[in-house]
Amino acid sequence: MARIELSSVTKSWGDVVAVEPTDLVIDDGELVAILGPSGCGKSTTLFMLAGIYAPSGGELRFDGAVVNEVEARHRNVGIVFQSYALYPHMNVRRNIMFPLKFKGVPAAEARRRAEETARLVQVGELLDRTPAQMSGGQQQRVALARALVKEPQLLLLDEPLSNLDATLRLSMRSEIRRLQRQLGVTTILVTHDQVEATTMADRIVCMSKGRIEQVGSVDDLFLRPKSLFVASFIGAPPINLVDARAEGGRLALPHQAVGTKAGDGDVVIGIRPENVALGAPDREGCLAATVLQVEPMGRETLYVLDSALGRLHALEHGAQRRFRDGDRVGCELPLSAMLLFDRQSGLRIEEPGLAAG
Amino acid sequence: MAATRKPDQAEWDALAARSRSEARRNQSLLIAFLVTVSLPVLLPYFWMFTISVSAKTGGVESIVLWKSSAILVPTIVGIGLVNAFVGDRMRKLYAAAAIVVAAVLAIFISIGDELHLGNYVFLHNSNFVQDLEGRRQATTESQFPSVWLAFGNSLMLASAQTVLVLFVSTLAGYYLSRFQFAGRQAFLQSLLILHAFPAMTLIIPIFLLMYWSGMLDTLTGVLLVVTTLELPFAIFIMKGFFDAVPWDIEMSALADGASRRQAFFMVVLPQVRVGMLAVGVFAFIKGFEEYVFVRTLLFDKQNWVMSLYIFWVSDDIMGVDYGIVAAVAVFYVMPSVMLYLFCQKYLVQMNIGGIKG
Q: Which residues on B lie below 8 Å from A160 (Cβ)?
């Protein structure tokens, strides 16, 4: 179990910078998710932590000791790959015992530990199968067992659930979380799936284009995103973004005059679909819109709207569908739920001071 | 949409019967085609074998050939017909076995008297040519070396070539597949060009090279030449097999504590077994059948290999005794046939993947 520190760690190949100088501290026993779209440098970061890539600059510390140059095999790190990466020519028992071979664990002891770990992840009865004879979920569990059997000081999960079907993903999510708590192993989960990150992690690191955009809890990222990127990446269906201009302490919106403390300049207004309230058309202070499409999702209903502010999404709870295609509606856009971003820098304006009038 | 009448059960049955009969007709046509094109391939081998066990000094009894062919062809056609028209698996096997038994009986009844093993005299008497021609021994040394010496030389050449080709092509293929280095692309292209290059054009320069380096008329010299010519293609094939091994399992082995070399031997190499088998079998057969370079570079009869042996036998007694030549040929072809029989199960799994740059 270890405390992991990255101080200005960077990775580049020639002129291509995959990870810009990055600072991050992960506490002992914490589960941190690195969340970002593909190509954002999250897997590169993971491989640097594993010791497969050496950082191009900066310092990587495990419990205070610099490990930049330490080879993967000496780091005692367990990885679960998206493809599981089980050794196809070995059965489950030998797969799980493989890491112990290099630690000088006596055979009998290694067998015992492999069986114990297999039981822990509930594949105790599959020990003699080969990877080809198992389902994806079972392979996933074996990969987890192989990563855990060596009692790693750091567990890395590279998109571990993305090859599983939806139901299995749900149960694996809570199971990985339970195991991680039980063993107290410091864990880093790399994913592009925000639900995976938000449900499993203590903290989320949101990355984009090789840079950390924001580190924080789910609430931080969802309610107080630091940047346009975070706001638009977190939340499904995604946040509505509307271009506007602040001038002389006012925001000009087609349906309403709004006062603001933001300085003059181009801004982007963000409002989450669940905060858009639909009602009768032609009400005071409401934005007139037309329903383009209704997407029932069981517990919720998503409306795609066409308005003077462009295309908007509105999410209503409940299965009843109050409007149909082509209906005219009035949207309430509560000022308290609006996020304001500087269009130039993409950063959120922390004190927008929005007020009607 | 216009209302269409739904077909009744009888019509469905008629459709099903039609597709069944079409499938059977197509399969029969295919089998007929395969039998027809395989006959010209099979007949020479069959004749070679028949001649070797029937011909007597002074000429070939062509009536024996005709009789045996008259049995062979109906046998093959019969087995083809059984394949096409007998549906049940067990009955198919019984029918085929019955045909084979009938064919063997027919052979013994029609030409049983003609069969003898006299032509295999060369296996224990290396003076058979003089004995045949009734000449007295001019020298104390026999004209031919023992066939076992030539056979041993051939086996040695082929095995040594197999080992060398496997060793070099595995390591080179892995390196080409996994590492980026200056000139890699050019190296790959030149491999292909080398493979396309007709080796015959190199005979004189290679002869000179062998002469000047003192390796003329040595098996080592020939071994180096044929191995070198075999290598480009073998390397290319092995690279393709390594390309198909995912990076993930290799990285996983590194994280599990293996060194790069251990990961190669314990995890990567087992995934390319089929490729190694294919390359090995082809290298062995190439070495075993090599003629042009051994004919050019070897003179001393202590260095004869089987291809030279059969050449000199036919040169000496062709026109006198076809039987012995055929018997030597049968003896010569046995190892290759055995090798294919044992390995064909794996060879047909071989799938040379796409070529990645």
A: none
